[in-house]
Amino acid sequence: MSPLSNITGPIYASSFFVYQDEKNGNYYLQEGKDNVELGFWPKDIFVGLANGATYAGCGGEVKTEGTVKPIDAPVMGAGTYPDVLPEKTNFAYCKFQVVDEAHNIVTTPDLEEFTNNKEYNAVVTNQENAKFIYFGGPFPVNV
């Protein structure tokens, strides 16, 4: 995907939309304000979601296989904590909204936060009928 954000440059964002088609029951992934279809998941692989979902989540993961030196590990985070420079960490965020069967945005309950590395943290805010999750932290971090 491009363009890419940089902490010293402009901030870019993409929006993604996952929904279940009312007619065929398949789940679709769309991107951008023009809702370009990126792909779909057949309803047959989501038997438990035949009638919609009651839970949704988002986040990120950095993983490396085998033993590597910390300097070789993949980097996650903007280099700053989200509560220090929110205007520069917001390129590492998730705007999370939930829609109903008619694709109307619905109010969601509070979010559950989870991290297995306390070097990274998240700041959750409620705005525009959405949950914003800003995440980041220093790099490199030993994971």
UniProtKB/TrEMBL annotation:
InterPro entries recorded: Glutamic_endopeptidase (IPR053168), Neprosin (IPR004314)
Pfam families in alphabetical order: Neprosin
Neprosin PEP catalytic domain boundaries: 1-143
Origin: domain of life: Eukaryota
Transmembrane portions of the chain: none
Annotated protein name in UniProt: Neprosin PEP catalytic domain-containing protein
Organism: Chenopodium quinoa
